[in-house]
Amino acid sequence: MRSLAEVLQDWEAIIGLEIHTELTTLETKMFCGCKLSHDDEPNANVCPVCLGMPGALPVPNEKAIESIVMAGIATNCEVMRRSMFYRKHYFYPDMAKNFQTTQGPVAFVMHGRLDLEVAGDGASERPDGTIEKASDGSYVAPIRILRIHMEEDAAKMNHLGGSEGRIGGATESLIDYNRCGTPLIELVTEPDLRTPEEARLFMEKLRQTFLTLGISDCSLEHGSMRCDGNVSLRRRGTSELGTKTEMKNLNSFKALHDALAYEICRQAEVLEGGGAVRQETRHWEPSRRRTVVMRVKETADDYRMYPDPDLVPFDLSDEFIERCRARVPELPDAKRDRYVRDWDLKRYDAARIAGDPDVAGLFESAASAVDASVVPMVAKVVVNLAFGREDVNAAQVASLARLLAGDAITFAQAREVLEAVAGGDGDPEHIVDERGLRQSNDVEALATIVENVLRSCTEQVRQYQEGNKKVVGYLVGQCMKASRGSGNPKLFSQLLTQRLQS
Ligand code: ADP
Ligand code: MG
Ligand code: ZN
User: Fold this and answer.
1) Is any ligand 1 atom within 6 A of the Cβ of residue 230?
2) Is there an atom of ligand 1 within 6 Å of 199 CB?
3) Per-residue pLDDT, 146
4) Which candidate in 16, 33, 478, 497 could, as Cys together with 230 as Cys, close a disulfide (CB 3.0–4.6 Å)?
């Protein structure tokens, strides 16, 4: 098969995502009072409603509707005044009542948009001229959202003996109804994405947004956020949509990206060989890096959708909508811009921090504990050392940043100190003193090291004299190594340059 970048020269990839998010932060299920928890004993949290017993009546969860309206507001959707629930019929043991309660043509929130900032390097770039690009190739892609609708999750099935958890080859299947009836919101994008990288960025941005709203733990790994990727190709310069395939089992950002990339190349090969793409659902097999057919697409008619007679239409009041709007916190883009404006952070660092509410909280409380001039160093510590760790607190980050900003320790030493802090060895100041980790600013001692390094690196010295100034970086690295990470790298660099120019 040809490479993605080559294929995208001839073909335009049209991608749309369907993203399911379980509202895991709620306490109860969508239509009954059962506890929302996936960790309990199988089938511990069930009742006649979520087991689909005849005559059991659903009672909608108001908090779940608040969450979906907040999700809609955060993604620039219109809140629909009136919407309803429908029954979507199918037979499978994961839903005991034999229909899923979901929404029909009108969802709670519709017609939204998220803007993606795409770095635009290599294969992540749109090769077409439909979007204006900045001088560095980056661009903003507006991605329309068709709708976000409310539905309920099905039970979890465990197919014993099947391959990769699939039913094929299974000899026995276990069902856990704890998950059945979990409030689930499904976001459907318009087919506006054009590259696997854009799809990945969309998913990432949505995850950051939902995490910030606090409506879900958004774990791709544990399936509380799940993504299906739809993709079709059309010849560049044409406007008619081609036949799409839909991919399931995209349970990581990498899987989403790689499955779409594979599928784009596969479809190009089929089409270039004179064949036709079949409308089908395919399954991504990460271990074999390919997609395989799962089933040919059922049509909407097969589901016998009709309004659920047990649930009256929802009329959302202005007061309800305004209450939801007031609960939407500062969103990642606004937070990033504020960090850049108020703290002079690098845009990339600011975006990384603002994307995760826990990291943003850590950063903000550490930042408020130091002088303004030290805040960019706090950001550096958070992004490069503390990211994703739950074992360090704001006071420790602030103290590390102060030590670094005051040139008391090097970054390499900061990493060691952080490990010790996390291991419970005390606060950073204490660890630095106890281990004698202070950065050396002793010019004479450092100059001796510089002499030794220059003597053994004759090749690099020759290169420098031939005009390759970049070798200084390598030589600083050698000096750092010789000082076992304790020398001040800025001083090393100055001393080296002085000596090399003399
Ligand atoms: P289906 O009825 O097969 O579920 P939908 O019309 O509901 O299809 O669309 C599902 C997703 O597929 C949406 O995200 C939509 O943007 C996307 N999509 C629709 N048509 C195409 C196409 N021709 N190529 C790529 N994506 C598409
Ligand atoms: Mg659909
Ligand atoms: Zn129940």
Assistant:
1) yes
2) no
3) 98
4) 16
For ligand 1, pick from 146, 194, 230, 232 the residue to mutate: most ligand atoms within 8 Å of CB. Answer: 230
Copy the structure tokens of residue 211.
């995490």
Give the Cα separation of 38 and 49 in Å (integer): 18
Ligand 1 atom at minimal distance to the Cα of residue 16: 14
pLDDT at residue 167 tops 70: no
What are φ and ψ of residue 309, in 5° steps? Answer: -70, -15
**Nearest residue to 241 via CA among 1, 11, 3:** 11
Q: Is the CB of 190 under 6 A from ligand 1?
A: yes
- pLDDT for 325 beyond 90: yes
- What average pLDDT score do residues 31-44 get? 92
Distance (Å, whole) CA 65 – CA 447: 67
Residue type, 285: E
Q: What are phi and psi of 476, to 5 degrees?
A: -60, -45
| pLDDT (tens digit per residue) in 81-101 | 999 999 999 888 899 999 999
Write out 331-398 in H/E/C secondary structure.
Answer: CHHHHHHHHHHHHCCCHHHHHHHHCCHHHHHHHHHHHCCCCHHHHHHHHHHHHHHHCCCCCCCHHHHH
Could you give the domains of the chain?
Answer: 4-300 (no CATH), 332-434 (no CATH), 443-501 (1.10.10.410)
- Mean pLDDT for 30-45 is 92
The predicted pLDDT at position 408 comes to 82
Quickly state the pLDDT bin for 162 (edges 50, 70, 90).
low
Cα–Cα distance for residue pair 74/330, rounded to 1 Å: 10
Q: Let me know: does 63 contact 36? Beta carbons within 8 Å.
A: no
Closest to 101 (Cα-Cα) out of 81, 80, 85, 119: 85
CB 191 less than 6 A from any atom of ligand 1: yes
* Cα 31 to ligand 3 centroid, rounded to whole Å: 7
pTM of the model: 0.86
Per-chain mean pLDDT for the chain: 90
Alpha-carbon span 466 to 438, nearest angstrom? 36
Are 15 and 191 in contact by the 8 Å Cβ rule? The answer is yes
Beta-carbon count within 10 A of 434 CB: 11
Assess contact for 284 and 293: CB atoms under 8 A. Answer: no
pLDDT in tens, 435-461: 777 777 888 888 999 999 999 998 999
Asked if residue 17 has its Cβ within 6 Å of ligand 1, the reply is yes
Site to substitute for ligand 1 among 20, 186, 194, 244, most atoms within 8 A of C-beta: 244
29 Cβ below 6 A of ligand 1: no
Q: What is the pLDDT of residues 138-148, one digit of tens each?
A: 889 999 999 99
